[in-house]
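Contributing: when you submit paired examples, paste them exactly as shown. First protein:
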Amino acid sequence: MVDEKKEKLKPFLKWVGGKGQLMEKIEKFYPFDQNINKYAEPFVGGGAVLFDILNKFELTEVYISDVNFDLLNCYNMIKEKVKELIEKLLILEEEFLIKSKEDRKLYYYEKREEFNELKTKRNKSDLLERAALTIFLNKTCFNGLYRVNKKGHFNVPMGDYKNPKICDEENLTNISKKLKNVDIVYGDYTKSYDFIDENTFVYFDPPYRPITKTSAFTSYSESPFGDKEQMELGEYFKLLDEKGAKLLLSNSDPKNEDENDNFFDDLYKEFNIERVEAGRAINSNGRKRGKITEILVSNKKELNNHERNRFL
């Protein structure tokens, strides 16, 4: 099952809430063996878990989806047209890096406006250009945020990076090879239902429930994801459990702010809830950046070392 190839994939985007720092904890829940040979990630985001699994296992089928069209468009363009995408990114990188700080700012906002115009037009002929601009803006914007306003326009200001790596040609090429057998679906998590069966490991990384009223400042798409949506996802989790799939879900821990907030403890009371330490990636108050806990919800207890070694 384990793929020993040297080419190691890594996320091609910086993504708020990326799971790189939690990989050691998440991988303990990997159930892959002769029976569990499919993987589904219905909120793929930056894909840290996806790429870790693609690095380590050869699976029969893999499914990813998201409601962020431009994110999914990047995955599709990397899968189908990686050479053309790399060519466009190399041009953007060269044009950006040779400029002065002030000229970089002008160039960034020019490209951001161009990107939003392409989003508005929604022409299929522009998808490659949209993907290149998505990656460029992600690598040069503030903290790698993907945030849109009510009109769906990307509105993140430019970041302050000396020499950002805009085009990682080797990584993009390696990702393209691995994505050839991955089913990439634009849409919400419920579209994964028919794919998922008792042979599937499913990882859910939905938009996190805000810990405080002031922390809900980022919108990744025009679609809201409030408590109602969290509860609907909880019901879907139960449906997949009944199907016999192996499940893992991550989310914020409300108890960081309010010990009496049992929202997730009640929602997932039938399942295993583990609290794990994580770094707070973004906070406007520097003194509030530090270690907090997040939750991992599973319908299978964490494997011990002996069990894990059997699968590896």
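Second protein:
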Amino acid sequence: LRPTILDLYVGLLYLRVLALALAGMAGLFYISTFIDLSDKLIKGTATTGMLLQYFWWATPQFTYYIIALAVLVAAVVTIGALTKSSELIVMRACGISLYRTAMPLLGAAAIAAAVLYGIEERILGPANRRADELIHLIRGQSPRTFDLSRRWVTGVDGALYHYRYYNAAQRQLDGLTVLHFAEHDAARVAARTYAATATASAAESRDWVGRKGWRRTFDQTSNVQAFNRFEQETLTLERPDTFVNEVPPPSQMNYGQLKAYLDDLRASGYDVRGDEVELYRKVAFPFVTLVMTLIGVPFAVTTGRRGALYGVGIGIVLALVYWTMISVFAAFGAGGVLPPLLAAWAPNIIFGACALYLLLTVRT
């Protein structure tokens, strides 16, 4: 389907409104953020350079959110403007349906969906981590460090610890391996201990209860000297806070990183339903641009003669409803009321169904 002069006309009108919407929302973000952090600048806990860096690294996350709203507002205002000027009526009289008129808008929405997915996979994680570090410094706090891959820890006695996952709330290590080195030969492993799980008896204690494990000792020639299995045994390890490894939130991981992390947790027997909703939402959310465009077009036809500001108001209300549904269904998914996949896609499904109904009932 080749673009026509009409497609170019509608597309250019749409892009102008989209650019204005993006610029206006970005301006609100920068102004509100500067007002919020200006006292830190006055008190000297932050510098102008730090604020500019924070704006730079926080922009991808804000852009990720406002693109969906800007696409909705642009679709409503564009179709509303064509309706108010009676151009849409002329198009219908010439045999051009509303569906055909809206094709440039749907094409732009599809591109916006691809942009959202690209931002999510390539930019958002590193940018959010850097923005989070900067905001903690600006607020006078120590920077938070996140590490998804740290699984090796060196003890004060020279022992080397490797674990699959550490649950700080339960003070439990999963898949623990401890390598003990010879006293006078740090290059030789003297013993190796494995425990499927190890639970600390207290927050400040070095006593852990290891379960379903074994211990293998080696002689000076690295041959196995003894091998003993145990169902439960007290192990002397490092204090629990040694193994604390703050994992980045889902917003700081892309789809592949979050999936690998959840696979590890699931294999250890942990409930990951809440984070599973976040995982599936990384794929579901970019489609919001298409859904919002589909629902915005029929809304604009019925309300277009009331002006552009009315269309902007409709867009904001629809966006607020959508975000509320995201939070509600995320809670349903985390609580087990709905499967995580359905909970992530439910807002798109409901809005898509409403859009389909409106498109089938509006005069085209």
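If you have annotations for the second protein, write them as plain sentences, like these:
The CA atoms of residues 15 and 95 lie 25 Å apart.
The mean pLDDT is 86.
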